[in-house]
């Protein structure tokens, strides 16, 4: 049976590299993001490499839409073996002036969408011995004075809150789903990734390196969290 990876938050950089890595390993690929046009480019690029792929335009901050999307992926590509969650929202940059609605928006994309995707995919994940949930974490999640100062300086306070909550969700899901044989792990990115919106020319990390780390975690099924810097 063909395996399917659900890539939530597709775009240039990490998610694209993960889609290509798992696609090269024989997975069908479901690409999910808001922009149908960008998804079409990703699907075409994968198809050119012989990878079966399909696009599912979805607002990952809308839990109901996420649940509907997972059902559509299952109907189109078959049972989901891996959920890769890479989505984030750069909202509520300044917690002293941003609206509570913006903070909720950052949280919904980074955390609620992840939980909704996992819940909707659980019947598939529980039915497969090599199922996994793989999350792209960020160093902004960590409690550290220097990291907090960086989040304030970058006007990324809402993102830091969402990443901190997401980091906790990964640990909780790893413990909860362990008995079901479902591996849950994250790669925490501690730096700028080349080719992403954060790259101003000084990025040092290769997206392919991070994708390879995800593949390593998936195969080893041991560590819940690992850092890449």
CATH level 1 class label:
Alpha Beta
CATH topology: Rossmann fold
| Strand count | 7
What structural class is derived from the secondary structure elements? alpha/beta
Strand content: 15-25%
What is the helix fraction of residues, given as a range?
40-55%
What's the order of the H and E elements?
EHEHEHEHEHHEHE
User: Number of helical runs?
Assistant: 7
- Tell me the name of the CATH homologous superfamily: NAD(P)-binding Rossmann-like Domain
**Spatial extent as radius of gyration:** 17 Å
Mean pLDDT: 94
Description:
The protein has 229 residues and is an alpha/beta fold. The chain has one domain (4-91, 105-142, 160-228): NAD(P)-binding Rossmann-like Domain (Rossmann fold, 3-Layer(aba) Sandwich), CATH 3.40.50. The chain has seven helices and seven strands. Strands 3-2-1-4-5-6-7 form a seven-stranded parallel β-sheet, sandwiched between helices. Helix 3 runs parallel beside helix 4 and helix 4 packs parallel to helix 6. The chain is globular and about 50 Å long.
């Amino acid at each position: 049976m063909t395996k399917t990876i659900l890539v939530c938050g597709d775009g240039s950089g990490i998610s694209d590299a993960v889609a290509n890595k798992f696609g090269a390993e024989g997975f069908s690929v479901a690409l999910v993001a808001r922009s149908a046009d960008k998804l079409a480019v990703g699907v075409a690029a994968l198809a050119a490499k012989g990878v079966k792929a399909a696009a599912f335009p979805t607002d990952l901050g809308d839990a109901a839409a996420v649940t509907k999307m997972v059902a559509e992926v299952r109907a189109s590509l078959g049972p989901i073996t891996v959920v890769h969650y890479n989505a984030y929202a750069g909202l509520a940059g300044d917690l002293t002036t941003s609206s509570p609605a913006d903070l909720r928006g950052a949280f919904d994309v980074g955390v609620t969408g992840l939980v909704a995707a996992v819940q909707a995919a659980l019947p598939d994940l529980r039915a497969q011995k090599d199922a996994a949930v793989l999350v792209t974490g960020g160093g902004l999640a960590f409690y550290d004075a220097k990291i907090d100062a960086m989040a304030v300086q970058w006007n990324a306070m809402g993102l830091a809150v969402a990443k901190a909550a997401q980091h906790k969700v990964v640990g909780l899901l790893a413990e909860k789903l362990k008995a079901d044989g479902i591996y849950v792990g994250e790669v925490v990115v501690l730096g700028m990734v080349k080719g992403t919106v954060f790259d101003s020319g000084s990025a040092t990390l290769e997206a392919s390196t991070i994708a390879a780390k995800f593949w390593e975690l998936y195969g080893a099924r041991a560590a819940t969290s690992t850092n890449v810097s």
